[in-house]
Amino acid sequence: MRGGGGHASLAIMSSMPHLDLTASCDCGAITLSVSGQAISMFQCACLNCQKATGGGHASVVLAPVGSVKTVGATKSFVRAADSGALFTRHFCPECGTTVMAQSSRAPAFRILPVGLFAGQNAWFQPNQLIFARSHAPWDLVDAAMPQHSAYRPEKTP
User: Fold this and answer.
1) Which of 133, 115, 111 is nearest to 67 (CA)?
2) Are 19 and 101 within 8 A, CB to CB?
3) What are the UniProt keywords, alphabetically (predicted)?
4) Is the dihedral of CA 142, 147, 149, 151 positive or negative?
5) Through-space distance between the first and last CA atoms of the chain, rounded to whole angstroms
6) Where are the domains of the chain?
7) Which CATH architecture has domain 4-134?
8) What are the φ and ψ backbone dihedral angles of 46, each rounded to 5 degrees?
């Protein structure tokens, strides 16, 4: 989440669910647990997310770094993001499942793919689509959801 020194506003956070979930990659070699309040829930249609998910967008939840624990060795891939930050995906070296990501722009948070929690993710309610400029018309998203060409604009105090 951007703005405010990297902290979500209390109004936004109060509407976010408290998560207490454990999931694993497709082969079971990596386990991820999250316990704490979600910071943000959104969808991203950047070209990198489309490639990583094999779909038209990624559906993700942002969680504080201290609320996320993994068991098992992950492999990482680092790339430059449009923001100039370094974006790192952590995935299972056996099956390739992305288990989390992080941005050097927001080191206090982890980006968790909601699909990792398949069967236990009914709580997910995205509140925005970022990188709508590269969103494919065949990928249906809620038309009423705010859509931003790139990142959500900074809020001014």
Assistant:
1) 111
2) no
3) Lyase, Metal-binding, Zinc
4) negative
5) 16
6) 4-134
7) Alpha-Beta Complex (3.90)
8) -65, 160
Nearest-5° angle of CA 111, CA 147, CA 61? 15
Side-chain-side CA neighbours of residue 93 (13 Å): 5
Predicted TM-score (pTM) of this structure:
0.87
Contacts of 109 (CB under 8 A, 6+ apart): 1, 6, 39, 62, 63, 64, 65, 102, 103
What does the angle CA 41 – CA 23 – CA 8 come to, to the nearest 5 degrees? 25
59-102 tens-digit pLDDT: 999 999 999 999 999 999 999 987 788 999 999 999 999 999 99
pLDDT tens figures, 127-144: 999 999 999 999 999 999
153: amino acid identity, one letter: P
Contacts of 71 (CB under 8 A, 6+ apart): 30, 31, 33
Closest CA to 131 of 61, 68, 79, 58: 58
